[in-house]
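Lecture 7, part 2: worked example. A protein chain together with protoporphyrin IX containing FE.
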Amino acid sequence: MTDTREGKTLDDFVLDMDGPSFLVDPHPTYRWLRENAPTYQWQARHTVVFSRYRDVKAILNDRRFSNNYRAWEFAQPEQWPPELIDFQKLLDNGLSLLPDHRHGPVRRLVSSSLTVRSVERMQTRIQQVVDELIDTAVEGDRLNLTKFAETLPTRVICDLLAIPAEMREDLCAFGLAAARSANIALPPDELIASISPTPRWVAMLRRVIADRRENPREDDLLSTLIMARDEGAKLTEEELLSLVFTFFVAGGDSTKNAITWGVRTLLRHPADLAEVQRDPSLWRNAAEETLRFEMFAKSGFPKYCTEAMEFAGVSLRKGQMVLPLIAAALRDGEAFPDPDRFDIRRDLRQTISFGSGQQTCLGAALARMQLVTALGTLFRRFPDMKPLGEPEFEPHPLIRSMKKFEVALH
Ligand code: HEM
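Predicted complex, written out as structure tokens:
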């Protein structure tokens, strides 16, 4: 196990984001980076790692850093086997690969459908789904928290899209599989298993879209996206399919781990938990603080330099990958005084848990609504919850992802 804690010099420091100590508690490593190597040359990955709030935020807001992995200096032309062509198309039409002139309009179409107000209208339904899924995850006097947290985002997306009852089970299963397909660190057989149902699901979604074009409904996200226009631009069918896929992928593991880490954080801070239980109006800020305090995304999304440049005192090559560590930035005392203190009343206006600038999370309002509803309901229904040991982790390229975390209910 690599010890990357205090006391290391730059020469003997090794960044290991997959080791067991990092997965449970990465903060000593993040602190070391911020204090000793805020622009760290991660030779093994040919990348520069940024850990201070000001640099991370500047990268997120600078259009010279792109999400398009085809802009990477080592990008290879992809050769997908024929059976994975449908999957490749979903990726090709995804937001991060859209050219600039298309990314803006598509983003605006989606964000106007997922505003805080439109998500608030879904609150009652999200509450019903949370209650129902908690019931199915209770096993005697314990709760399988990871099972609950994994199923919730998929069910909510299916609900948002108003998937017909007879297809719901299948499409929810696809949602879970699609979310897993983002995890390229899975063993190959599991990865292929998560990708292989794609053609069948794409066909099913096309049928749902065709039907919804004929019979639009009020207040469902799919009808809204089909009909939405931005300065005359509409989503193409392929863009629509990719978006639905992205909702599952981008909203799956992230929301799941927001809930599991949120529960763990609150259980470890009983005084704050008692305070929010006494005054539920604090839930919104408390949930946001769990995201800041225990941001589960290990490295943030990689970005690629679209031109050679000097940035924060380092020379970056065209095509070079950089890693803005949002999780490290969220513990930077320059932006968050006394950053290692969990404080449910903290001023979080500067938070960047959902990114910043051009690529800010499109699902932020939805994720927040799910997180607040899940945490509030769990601790209201089971006020004496206790962790049953430490969480178990699964390999994941981007997230400190819990595979299993159970709690005792009484
Ligand atoms: C707690 C849960 C979540 C967290 C922490 C999170 C975080 C983020 C972050 C940091 C980004 C920006 C990446 C960048 O700078 O390139 C992002 C992008 C994105 N997120 Fe989320 N997200 C969450 C949940 C969701 C949900 C529920 C959805 C949709 C249903 C969603 C959809 C997206 C999409 C579509 C993008 C890409 C935006 C673009 O490229 O323009 N996310 N998310």
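Residues 1-37 form one domain. Residues 60, 67, 95-96, 107, 153, 246-247, 250-251, 254-255, 258, 301, 326, 353-355, 359, 361-363, 366-367 surround protoporphyrin IX containing FE (CB under 6 Å). Keep this in mind for problem set question 3.
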